[in-house]
Amino acid sequence: MAEGSGSLYDPRRHVRILSERVRDVSSVDYPGHFPGEDHSWDLAKFTENFHLEVQRLSQRSVEFDLVGVDASIANAFRRIMIAEVPTVAIESVYAWDNTSIIVDEVLSQRIGLIPIHVDPRRIDVKSEGDESTDRNTLVFNLDVRCSRNTKAKRGATADSELYINHEVLSSHLQWVPQGEQAEVFEADPPRATNPNIVLAKLRPGQAVKMELHAVRGVGKDHAKFSPVATASYRLLPLVVLNPDKPVPKESAEKFAACFAPGVIHVDKRSGKVRVEEKNLRKDTVSREVLRHPEFEGCVELKRIRDFFLFHVESESAYPPEDLLPEAIQILRGKIAAIRQATEALLDEDQTMDSQDAMQTD
Amino acid sequence: METPTEEEWAQINKPNWRGLGLTDPVKSVEDKWLLLPAFLKTKGLVKQHIDSFNFFVNTDIKNIVKANNKVTSDIDPKFWLKYTDINIGFPDRNESGISQKRLTPNECRLRDITYSAPIVVTIQYTRGKNIIKRTANIGRMPIMLRSSKCYLTGRSEDELASMKECPLDPGGYFVVKGTEKVILVQEQLSKNRIIVETDTTKGIVQASCTSSTHGGLKSKTYVVTKKGKIYLRHNSCHEDIPIAIALKALGVQSDKEILLLTAGTTDSYKDAFATNLEEAAKLAVYTRQQALDYIGVRVKINRRVIGPRRPAWEEALEALSTIILAHVPVNGLDFRGKAIFVAMMTRRVLMAMDDEKMVDDRDYVGNKRLELAGQLLALLFEDLFKTYNTNLKSSIDKVLKKPSRTTEFDAHNTLLFNGDILTSGFVRAISTGNWSLKRFKMERAGVTHVLSRLSFISALGMMTRISSQFEKTRKVSGPRALQPSQWGMLCPSDTPEGEACGLVKNLALMTHITTDVEEEPIVRLAFMLGIEDISQATGAEIYGPNTFVVNVNGTIVGLTRHAPRFVAQFRRMRRASRVSEFVSVYTNHHHKAIHIASDGGRICRPMIIVDKGRPRVTAQHVALLRKGSMSFDDFLKKGLVEYLDVNEENDSYIALYEDSIVPLTTHLEIEPFTILGAVAGLIPYPHHNQSPRNTYQCAMGKQAIGAIGYNQFNRIDTLLYLSVYPQQPMVKTKTIELVGYDKLPAGQNATVAVMSYSGYDIEDALILNKASLDRGYGRCQVLRKNATLIRKYPNGTYDRLADAPKDEYTGQTQKKYDIVQLDGLAGVGERVDPGDVYVNKQSPTNANDNTFNGQAASVPFKNAPLTYKSPVAGNIDQILITDTENDQTLIKVLIRQTRRPELGDKFSSRHGQKGVCGLIVNQEDMPFNDQGIVPDTIMNPHGFPSRMTVGKMIELLAGKAGVLSGKLQYGTAFGGSKVEDMSRILIENGFSYSGKDMLTSGITGEPMEAYVYFGPIYYQKLKHMVMDKMHARARGPRATLTRQPTEGRSREGGLRLGEMERDCLIGYGATQLLLERLMISSDKFEVNACQECGLMGYNGWCSYCKSSKKVASLTIPYAAKLLFQELMAMNVVPRLVLDDA
Lengths: 361, 1141
Hints:
The structure holds 2 protein chains of 2 kinds.
Chain A: E1 14-17, E2 22-23, H1 43-49, E3 51-57, E4 61-67, H2 71-83, E5 87-98, H3 104-112, E6 116-117, E7 138-145, E8 147-148, H4 159-162, E9 163-164, E10 167-169, E11 173-176, H5 181-184, E12 191-192, E13 198-201, E14 207-217, E15 228-241, H6 252-257, E16 264-266, E17 273-275, E18 299-314, H7 320-360
Antiparallel strand pairs in A: 1-2, 1-18, 3-4, 4-18, 5-14, 6-12, 7-11, 7-14, 8-9, 10-13, 15-18, 16-17
Helix pairs in contact in A: 2-7
Chain B: H1 6-13, H2 35-43, H3 47-67, E1 70-72, E2 80-88, H4 105-111, E3 116-127, E4 130-142, H5 157-162, E5 174-176, E6 179-183, E7 185-189, E8 194-199, E9 204-212, E10 218-226, E11 229-234, E12 241-242, H6 243-249, H7 255-262, H8 267-282, H9 288-296, H10 312-323, H11 336-354, E13 368-371, H12 373-401, H13 411-416, H14 421-432, E14 435-437, E15 442-444, E16 448-450, H15 456-463, E17 465-468, E18 505-506, E19 512-513, H16 520-528, E20 532-533, H17 539-542, E21 548-552, E22 555-560, H18 563-575, E23 584-588, E24 593-597, E25 603-611, E26 614-615, H19 619-627, H20 632-637, E27 641-645, H21 646-649, E28 654-655, E29 667-668, H22 691-700, E30 719-723, E31 731-732, H23 734-739, E32 748-754, E33 766-769, H24 770-774, E34 780-790, E35 800-801, E36 831-832, E37 837-839, E38 841-844, E39 861-863, E40 866-867, E41 874-883, E42 889-899, E43 906-909, E44 914-921, E45 937-939, H25 950-965, E46 969-970, H26 979-988, E47 996-997, E48 1012-1021, H27 1026-1029, H28 1059-1068, H29 1071-1080, E49 1084-1090, E50 1096-1097, E51 1111-1117, ...
Parallel strand pairs in B: 7-17, 21-24, 28-29, 31-46, 32-45, 33-44
Antiparallel strand pairs in B: 1-2, 2-3, 3-4, 5-6, 6-16, 7-13, 8-9, 9-10, 10-11, 11-12, 14-15, 17-18, 19-25, 20-22, 21-22, 23-24, 25-26, 25-27, 25-29, 30-34, 32-48, 33-45, 34-42, 35-38, 36-41, 37-40, 38-39, 41-42, 43-44, 43-48, 47-48, 49-50, 49-51
Helix pairs in contact in B: 3-12, 6-9, 7-8, 8-11, 9-10, 12-14, 25-26
């Protein structure tokens, strides 16, 4: 385990947190960096170091540890989750009637941003110039008309009492199955993930009537296709106390207050401080401790370079735990594409070589 | 520092002043700033305009009519017509047979009509032998919004909403022909006051006084030195009059008295003045009669009525009593008051000659008066009313001249049909801004301006603007410099850059401008308080020790020997509301004078009165104020606060904070941040910024795109910029809340990372996050009005709207008519592509033919459609069909574009830090912090060191703390949330105290080596957008005359290779490039030049030589050919001599 080593500074594994700067941010475990050391990739070593553990899982978010990979790999997952995992979102809006205060373009933009609960794997990508078919387009209707609530109590002031449909909500989206869609999506009909998003406010007499076409897309084209609210990681913090310079007893509480609650344990009787290893991940690395001169030299702050604490919030049809596998799939697809291209290139080279050889002959 | 021992503590804690120890906190009146919202509630930000207009409409206009109330006839001496009263009604529709008479300002804006009310006079006149009393409507006057004659005044928010009016709109402007017009505040030198100046290079000392009486002429009188002697100078005299002669003419005959009145008993003054007495003796002027004769021959006579020539002395008397120093009253032939005034001017000159420090500063704000809408309208009205009456008189004369009339003459009819001099005069003056009143020798242009509705703040800023009368070209720094006396009155930050710098100013938050207060009661009060009449006093008394001269509005009225007591008593009367709160009184110790001022246009502001070291406003008062049981006026009435004008302010001892009150303190400031105006008040932590940055922000805040009013969707303006998602700033100021900027904001709280990124952020460029833009950051709408009139022509024809024309054969309509519906108008909500027709108007072909032929229906029509010209598609937002005042149908089409920020769009923070978008980056490439927060904007840190906008850094810190604690923070000037508290909140929430976060690069995934300053800053999107500016041309239109490419983006013009660029090419020797740029790509032209005569021919024929023998063809710029022909037209023959033809 990487945690709790208690060892002193190891520039090969640690990112050093100083009061005004960060040091040793880049990994060094690659071939040729240290003379006489072999750092070539080794499956056995990788499997030994690699570790993936889900820390917390809820309906909307997941926190997991990814240990033993390079920052570039972890970052690739993060980037793919934000920008390349496909989702379905509304792309075209056909407005028949919109007398709300919000104008067509803005309402359309707001509608586009509604996360839609539909498995994107069941929808084809609609490329430019493609006809809309039941395979690549979902159709929704939005038909809301506001009216006065005749049964409202006298003296009522709340909009919800006075009017019927005083808000256009994401739950007003009505899926209109096309072709075979009724069967395909029978089990889990497409709808908005969150039914309470306010799209516009209405007053009696105002109405919104629109036809909405949803297609599959990726987050790099538009943020509405991004499946995550946030996908990010941080490195595991490490607090190392200097055994040669213990924290002064009288300021032990102050020392503990410099960290997130629970990170530092203060012994009530002796006033000695110790790092609570299991709570280290709670620390926010506020560097507060480095600000106080009395703690100078008592402690070193570090982060472990290959210990990524991921936090992913899903805001789409994907359950949060599915996002990483999905990202891995996409990354593998990319690798496959590169491998194919490389092999094709190699083949070409070989044929070229042979051609060259033939010519020289 | 060592900790004090117990005894020391005890010593320090010992009560030593009013039961308080040294370490006890001074019990201060907390929240005394609450007086400010109370003040703004009663006075409002633009109250000066409204007060001034109200004063004019309710009081001043009656005085004007009273002064010109009689119309008589030269023909019938028995006839007279008298105005007994005048009243302005409420704005109404000037149409008959209408049930809803009430006219709302918004209807006027939409229908291009004037928000005006009838002027109703009560008249008495003779009809035959009877005297008849009636009322009559003599015209219409534009009404200032939210004045006492406006429907909007005192309405609740609901009522305003039903009138489609914004409750936050300040009012104070006019709606004339549909446009909102502001009469800017004009700054002028004060009238009827003596100003002493020196010209050190010429050694001249002069005292001048501009006299201005109500409705009278303005004239300037000088007392100047010339070669050590003193003269009286006035426009009405050919030459300067020796002062002794002038005084003799004014009735001070004896030299002894002259000396006493001018030099008094001071020896040095006496010595300096003596030569003037010799001068009079040399000119053999000893008596008053001689003096009058002397002056009489030197007075310019402009007599209209030809009559017997008056003797010179009469002319002199006339001039002295009515023209010279006209504001000093002369009762009958008692010139004593005027004599003393002239003597006083002379004495001031003598004082300045003796001590060069005894001069006045014309830039001192106390010597300035602000002229507001009311005063300007009063002048205009007086002029128009006089014209009206002369016209009325002549038309009455015309009728009365007729020997026999069938009916008895009734002047009422004449009055009604006497044209619309008043109506059109007002409308013309306000809509053009030209105040040309010959009668008052006034010729001013640019008095009114169109109210800028770019943003709420720009409109508000315009209402507080003051323009100076100084010319912009003069290279003097005095009037432009910041004056110490403008503290608290005029905003030190809000002034434009460039030529109008320092000349255009803005009012501070608490400033009020006075209106005229009647003078007589004040004079009476002064006498009751024991002053002695000046005309009874001799020079020895006036200049005696402990004697102070009492002036009321510049005229000397009396003396007092107990100046401090008099001033204190006068103030007590004012604080007890026995005189108007806007009357000021102050002592000038240099001149030994007490000045009481009640004239209009003085700048003043309220202050808390301090008595015996204690402010009169106590915590209890503030509590009552908070509860709402006391208003600002109650504070005034109770004598807790009072208004001080600049002169009185500078005679007071004002404590900035309560803990700095000393026994001599007379007043306490209400709040220090009120020295800033409404626009500068938006800046958070302005006291931490370099001063010019605040000035830059004041200019830029007016260009920010935001919300402009609650009624913004009910307006059809020529050009309107709106933000889609405006946010109130995280870091507010008290001013923001007071002016309502939090309800009508212009900007968004962007999460900013202060770091360098990609090199596309150099020179203040900003990096924007693409995902933020997708989600709506910086999105704005541009609404543009396109209007057309459906005219009726005098020949009986009319314009018409037609549906889209169908092709004769196919039956299809052209694509550009796609959105035109059957009524000839585009449907609301339709997308308009470039080139589309949205109003298919057709005009008759003979519209300009004025002969009526009765066949209007059969006239052929030609197309005159409105086509959409912008390069980017828009949507039809609104279409308005209405009619104007003269029954023309008016169609207004509002076309909307919704824009998302793009490369090159301009943004700015609230600290004068503007920048354009340099790069739009995908979210995954942006850096992120431990929480996964990605910035909306990346700002380059190089923007900080040279700009020194520390306020921006603190704004970020406070904003971040506010976000974390879920509270809005305050960045109010000289106060606001403290950095220390902000840092504490950050630490409590697990952030670094410094506001710097550890970021991870979105590209490499590795942590960044530096901590990055990271948090929300309020960013404004400015109206300068690339879409409105981008321009390029390969080929295109050319000007007809020169055949060169046209100029300017609007005409799809070329980009000029100017002289300096040309010089570079010449220097480099790129001849072919020069030829190509300046001729081939511009206006090349083939000419035929005859080698025989050197003139130009055509088609290979020289029409001069009548031959084609030696005609050569060559290419020259068309402009050159044009020049040759123009030279020939003025008889200069240019000949083309070719080397190698």
